[in-house]
Write a structure and sequence with these properties.
This protein is mainly α. The protein is 47% helix and 10% strand.
């Protein structure tokens, strides 16, 4: 059997971090088995669904690198097909017309509540003779078995049993002829050939009701895997108070997508003790048996740690592309061609210990800025008159040096020795001269990335400045 999974978000807002993890699990499961990963937009709620939200979802998936197969399916556009199935169920006796008004249903529930009975509505039209049907609006309800049990064999939750007398005769088609969400989901999953339904465990009870439609239509059930929701660090349901909720916010904060994928995959799923892994490893390792039953807790420190590891091993060109996307998403100026070239030259010394893209760009300030350098307050203190004199004396020594790390280290050591000091004393003024900052990559890395001409220009300008 060829595996087909799907992600089916509602376009009523941003792509929630929980939805992103669901999409990732479906994507990993399909990709790891040579299957297909489909995308369906569940836009039947016309009052709340917006094109902007759909676009935000698509952008979020694109940033996460979760490509889908085939065209995006609109659930709303398939309403005629959903209604067709409801009428088919009606024709075969698996569903029936219910003429009860909302007032009658409310009255039934109120009376049942007073008498201490179940408030689950029992339609008087379930077994009514069609000859007694009035010429009035009606809904179509599924004829749910009144006895026995519905058993969900869930790949994550295990065997879940629900008594059928706890399930109502679900409405399939409203009185205006529009299909309900529960029917639409089943019909779409069947028609799209979905073999595995991997979704949040808040849909677990829905599965029992949806299975009734599959059974009545004689369709094969999909494999169900209901995954626990994500909680905040305090163990409560993830919400705004815990920080960013939308995937777009994480991009704007500068988390790399590879780190986000790594962390989300690890959030509620495990492969032994492995924390850091590549996309290829995640695709190979991911399975449903590794998903835990308990809610996962979102931990920003773990996210940053994994993001730092992913940045360190990232391909330089791919990382530059991600930086450009981050700057655009966060409303910052685009990089010039010169800045891009400088970043690529410097990636080898910028990626280490940067946990987010803003941290990497902070380290890269020396190559993103242009001379004359304006030192910040702390760096300016390192350019006192004595330090500027040392830089002036160092300049001709560097002018004659070969521009390799070995020769630069040798020249600096000889100069420091001649000055009766250690290189550490030279590092502060050099950082201030080359970057205008006190925290930077190593002086030698900056000089190699900037090149001889630019490095000497900055040192000369610092030596002749009146800063300090």
């Amino acid at each position: 059997m060829s595996v087909v999974t799907r992600f089916a978000p509602s376009p009523t807002g941003f792509l929630h971090i929980g939805g992103a993890r669901t999409a990732l699990f479906n994507w990993l499961y399909a990709r790891g088995r040579g299957g297909r990963f489909l995308l369906r937009i569940e836009d039947t709620d016309r009052a709340r669904s917006t094109p902007e939200a759909t676009e935000a979802i698509l952008k979020g998936l694109d940033w996460l690198g979760l490509d889908h197969d085939g065209e995006v399916v609109s659930q709303y556009e398939r309403a005629d097909r959903h209604a067709e199935v409801a009428r088919e169920l009606l024709a075969k006796g698996a569903a029936y017309k219910c003429f009860s008004s909302q007032e009658e249903i409310s009255a039934f529930r109120e009376k049942a509540k007073e008498e201490g009975r179940s408030t689950l509505f029992q339609s008087p039209w379930r077994d009514a003779d069609p000859a007694t049907h009035p010429d009035a609006p009606y809904v179509i309800r599924l004829r749910t078995p009144m006895e026995g049990e519905t058993v969900i064999e869930d790949e994550v939750q295990g065997r879940v049993t629900i008594r059928n007398d706890q399930l109502d005769d679900m409405i399939l088609l409203r009185s205006d002829g529009s299909p309900v969400y529960m029917l639409a989901v089943v019909v779409d999953d069947h028609d799209m050939g979905v073999t595995h339904v991997i979704r949040g465990d808040d849909h677990l009870n829905n599965a029992a009701r949806q299975m009734g439609i599959y059974t009545a239509m004689g369709w094969d059930l999909p494999v169900y895997a209901h995954i626990p929701l994500i909680h905040g660090p305090d163990g409560k349901k993830l919400s705004k108070r815990h920080g960013a909720l939308g995937v777009d916010e994480y991009q704007k904060l500068g988390y790399p997508s590879a780190g986000m994928r790594n962390y989300l995959a690890r959030l509620g799923w495990s492969h032994g003790d492995d924390e850091f892994f590549t996309d290829a490893q995640a695709t190979e390792w991911f399975d449903l048996s590794g998903i835990g039953k308990s809610p996962a807790r979102f931990d920003f420190k773990k996210l940053e740690n994994l993001c730092g590891q992913q940045i360190a091993v990232a391909d330089d060109a791919a990382l530059l592309h991600e930086i450009e996307a981050y700057l655009a998403a966060s409303g910052q100026p685009a990089l010039s061609e010169g800045q891009k070239d400088g970043l690529l030259r410097g990636m080898y010394c910028l990626k280490d210990r940067a946990k987010t893209l803003p941290q990497l760009l902070e380290k890269a300030e020396f190559v993103l800025t242009s001379s004359p350098i304006e030192p910040d307050e702390k760096a300016a203190k390192a350019l006192d008159p004595v330090s500027r004199g040392i830089l002036a004396a160092l300049t001709p020594q560097l002018q004659n040096a070969s521009w390799s790390r070995e020769k630069l280290e040798e020249t600096m050591a000889e100069f420091a020795d001649a000055q009766g000091t250690k290189f550490g004393k030279l590092a502060g003024p050099l950082r201030a001269a080359l970057a205008g900052r006190s925290v930077t990559p190593s002086v030698f890395d900056m000089m190699l990335v900037l090149g001889k001409e630019e490095s000497l220009l900055r040192i000369r300008q610092a030596a002749s400045s009146e800063t300090g």
